[in-house]
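User: Here's a structure from my thesis project, written as structure tokens. My advisor, Dr. K., wants to see whether a designed sequence matches the one we expressed. Can you design one independently, without my sequence as a hint?
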């Protein structure tokens, strides 16, 4: 199965998944979207109201800001793969819960393997927790690290910048680093933070 077929298969499985309680309230599952050969994969937290209505990730205000950020580095959303740590909307847009993230982890793991991106960008603290534990996003945002042989860059969620205007310039500056990371495959020192010891730990919260 080639990467495109694998992503399609994952999307089909996500659409009918009943592995956690979120399937009871979903209107549309949101597996993610983008090309199978994307250099960049963005991992957000969870679908919101508009995403649940359309079955697409980042289509509300945060999505529009993400598109602005991509434009600032000469890219558009059709060039990147965008997804979330959970594939169905939590009721009332509450935070994802541990059992929900564990249930969805297998889909996200498969998507990343299929795409094999040059850079993974985590948006917000819940996606960051897949790769960095016991650390605050304020301490490591914009700092890339090799984790499990992949270059991972934690960043603030675009929605956080919409709620806290002081973060807009921070997020914009972090985004400005991405073209260099993609083009030059820079040598990045490991951050001095506690990291998962093996792949299995990535699924534990």
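Assistant: Designed independently from the structure alone:
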């Amino acid at each position: 199965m080639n990467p495109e077929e694998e992503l399609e298969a994952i999307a089909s499985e996500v659409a009918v998944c009943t592995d956690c309680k979120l399937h009871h309230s979903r209107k549309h599952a949101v597996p993610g979207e983008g090309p199978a050969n994307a250099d960049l994969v963005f991992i957000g937290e969870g679908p919101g109201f508009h995403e649940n209505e359309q079955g697409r990730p980042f289509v509300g205000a945060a999505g529009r800001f993400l598109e602005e950020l991509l434009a600032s580095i000469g890219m558009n959303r059709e060039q990147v793969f965008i997804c979330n740590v959970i594939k169905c909307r939590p009721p009332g847009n509450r935070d994802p819960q541990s059992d929900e993230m564990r249930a969805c982890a297998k889909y996200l793991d498969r998507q990343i393997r299929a795409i094999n991106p040059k850079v993974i960008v985590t948006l917000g603290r819940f996606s960051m927790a897949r790769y960095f534990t016991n650390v605050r996003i304020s301490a490591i945002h914009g700092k890339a690290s090799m984790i499990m042989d992949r270059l991972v860059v934690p960043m603030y969620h675009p929605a956080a910048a919409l709620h806290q205007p002081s973060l807009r310039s921070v997020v914009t500056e972090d985004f400005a680093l991405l073209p260099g990371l993609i083009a030059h495959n820079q040598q990045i020192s490991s951050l001095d933070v506690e990291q998962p010891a093996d792949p299995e730990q990535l699924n534990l919260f």
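When you compare it with your expressed construct, this may help: Residues 98-115 form the longest helix (18 residues).
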